[in-house]
Amino acid sequence: MKLLVIGAAGRTGKHVLAQGIERGHEITAFARRPDSLPDLPGLTGVHQGDAHDLDTVRTAVQGQDAVVAAVGGSRIAGNLITAMRERGVSRLVMTSSRSVPATRPRVAVALAWLFFREAYVDLARAEGMLQVSGLDWSIARATMLNDKPPSGRVHVDFEANATGGAMQLSRADYAMALLDTVENADLIGKALGICGPR
User: Closest Cα to residue 54, out of 94, 10, 84?
Assistant: First the structure.
């Protein structure tokens, strides 16, 4: 699969790049600072740019089979939707937060919204845009991310509140789940809640 990774130089994006290459995908990185990308011999291409710039996104999307956005937000979602429609690329997986739809545990969710309200409102807007975009979208809502070593397992459900798993999730495991999602056509049109393993 020809796969474009938006936010490739980020802490999750770097894992998506490395694991995607290991899986045999043709990976193109999209990053504002390509000099901070890891040295990956199997990388197919690199686009320097800001995902808030539509023209740059249009160029990067051309010729891809799918896009993994390892960074979320309504401006990025809007540019991807426009560019992907124009270029005939339909498969998109975008990151989000488990806290966007969650109602439990009440205290933890309330505190999260207190401190990150602006970001969560924007993520909710981005999710809504994807859901009416006509693209083959999936939304991957993560719990609290960390940089611990991967376990090779995650807990996935499709509910507003987690049905199991741990609140801590390693970025490497999240990257694994993002790639699993983009490869799985059964997850098109689904919003996944992704937790760490127990």
Answer: 84
